């Protein structure tokens, strides 16, 4: 809430070439107030206040899982993980090898609530968009379990879903050992 500590949101691009900046910039712009964290010249870590939702978020983007311990520390502090899936013409896979490695690390540690964001959908043909939505939905369900959500994303829909699933009630949480999909 507004009076407690900010909810920690970890944004995780699932493809190594995926640029999360448009997504992060949209969240930053949608906030009533936002401040970039000191010692971070790139705006990949900021606190956003949403007065109308009575919420504060600390948003962190994990670009690299090359340093597994740093990646896992970041994930351990997150209340909600937002895997990013970008809609791109010709993109056959939702996740690449680096993304699969990151997911394996997360499954080993356990995950909080998951709200996957499918963004840039308007940039591709409707036919390809429908196919990508089906693939992404199946992927999210298989990888994160039935409580995870896929949101074809505008900042408003993603924000509302994160608020709903990351409210601390445990309804959207996924932890290793609780879901058979995580223990394959």
From TrEMBL:
Listed under GO biological process in this entry are: endonucleolytic cleavage of tricistronic rRNA transcript (SSU-rRNA, 5.8S rRNA, LSU-rRNA); maturation of SSU-rRNA from tricistronic rRNA transcript (SSU-rRNA, 5.8S rRNA, LSU-rRNA)
Per the UniProt record, the source organism is: Octactis speculum
| Superkingdom | Eukaryota
Cited Pfam families: Tsr1_G-like
Q: Cite the InterPro entries for this sequence.
A: Bms1/Tsr1
Q: Which GO terms describe its molecular function?
A: GTP binding; GTPase activity; U3 snoRNA binding
| CC terms in the record's Gene Ontology section | preribosome, small subunit precursor
For this entry, the protein name equals: Uncharacterized protein
Q: Which PANTHER family match?
A: PRE-RRNA-PROCESSING PROTEIN TSR1 HOMOLOG, RIBOSOME BIOGENESIS PROTEIN
């Amino acid at each position: 809430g507004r009076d407690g500590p900010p909810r920690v949101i970890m944004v995780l691009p699932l493809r190594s070439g995926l640029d999360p900046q448009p997504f992060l910039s949209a969240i930053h712009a949608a906030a009533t107030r936002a401040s970039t964290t000191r010692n971070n010249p790139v705006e990949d870590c900021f606190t956003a206040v949403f007065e109308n939702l009575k919420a504060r978020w600390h948003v962190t983007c994990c670009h690299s899982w090359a340093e597994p311990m740093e990646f896992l520390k970041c994930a351990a502090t997150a209340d909600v993980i937002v895997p990013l899936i970008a809609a791109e013409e010709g993109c056959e896979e939702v996740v690449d090898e680096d993304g699969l490695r990151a997911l394996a690390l997360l499954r080993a540690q356990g995950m909080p609530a998951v709200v996957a964001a499918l963004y840039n959908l308007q940039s591709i043909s409707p036919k390809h968009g429908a196919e990508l939505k089906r693939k992404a939905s199946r992927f999210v369900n298989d990888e994160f379990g039935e409580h995870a959500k896929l949101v074809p994303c505008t900042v408003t829909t993603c924000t509302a879903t994160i608020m709903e699933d990351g409210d601390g009630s445990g309804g959207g949480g996924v932890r290793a050992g609780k879901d058979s999909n995580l223990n394959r």
